[in-house]
Each structure stands twice: as C-alpha cells, then as structure tokens.
Amino acid sequence: MATFVRDLGAEDSGEEFVSTEDALTNSLSGQEHQTTEPAPEKVWRKPTRNLTTSQKIRVWSLEVRELVLLLGDSNLARIPCHNYLRVQIDSFPGAQIHHLKGVLRKLETCATTQKVGLSVGLNDCSRNNLLDTIKKQFQQLVALTRRVFPNAQVFLPLIQCSDKLSLGVQSLIEQTNTFLSHHFRTLHMVEKHLFFVHSHDPIHWTAKTSTSNILDSWMKQLN
Length: 223
Description:
This protein is 35% helix and 14% strand. It is of the alpha/beta class. A 6-stranded parallel sheet has the order 1-3-2-4-5-6. A two-stranded antiparallel sheet has the order 7-8.
C-alpha cells in the first residue's frame, strides 16, 4: 500500500569549487570531476474544478489519473496548490450526493485506485433534505464507488460546518455524521479553532482551512 507524502524537493547541492588549475590537473591525469545533478523542483498540484452548471450530471465527467481520489463539492476547489504526491482532487460545484452518483456511473471499472474520499453532503443538508433520503443516498453512493473502484478503500469525511448555519441545518448535519460514523469509514473533522469559513458565506471554507488544516488532516488519516 502506497504512502502519500508531500514532495519536499531536494536540499542544496553544495557543489565544491574547483579552480582552473585543479581542473587542468584532473584533466591531464585522466580524472573527471563529477558534478552533482541539479535539485529537482517541487511538483505542485491543484484541484480540478468542474463547470458550474444546472445540468450537472449531463455535463460533469471524471478522468482518473492518480492512486488517491478526493471527490466533492465546491469546497474542494478552494484548496490552493499542494504538493501531495499521487493525490487527485476533483471539485463539483453545488454537488449533492446524487450528482456524484451520476458522475461515477459514467466510469469504467478502475482496479488501480487505492483510496477514494467522498466529501459531499453539506449541500444536501443545507437544502433540508430528509434524513432518511440522505442516508439512502450515501448508502447507494458508497456501494457504487466500491463497484467502480473494487480495490479501493472508501472514506467519507465527516461534514464540518459553521455555527452560522441555522440550528435546523446543524442538527441535520450532526445526525448525518452520526449515521456515517456508524456505517462507513470516515475521516474526522479538524478542531473547531482550526476551521474557518468566510464571514459573508457560512458554507465555504477559507483557503487556510482547506489546505493547512483539512487537507493535511485528511492526508494523515489516509496514510
């Protein structure tokens, strides 16, 4: 099983200074001076943000490129460039659970994928969908994901939300998280003091929350 870590690049080469006289002496003696290869640059990756559209299932698609997939709603697009190796992040703005099901139904079976995280459900809860409907949608989504990625572990990040949302939505999210914890592999939330949303927008994470806190936490749990 692969371990997914940051690409930390390489340290300075610390090449040794060689004078013209020394270089000439080495050349005449048949000795070649070996130089260190240039340090490779860091590889930066960023999420793929799919189109904002009212025809989500018809328009959206997914191309699997990496061993680890993180699929979810628009909050994933707020993750800035990162350097986690072999991790692919695809964001589907406004996605509810049934939208991800529609995207996955378009895929052929992929046996090489190792881990899939499905960060979805906030939009379902914010629209006050029925709890029983949300439960059934999650069951169907996970079952479909396991069929498409038969060798992958499937994880559901617990839904983290702002206390600026209505009490009814917060209660529905809490009940949904309880259900997810009891029935599926989940990724736990970050501590409250590490979670931030925009002051004018209680749904969307800030960039700092997305990378330094949530993404880092997920990667540690997936390792």
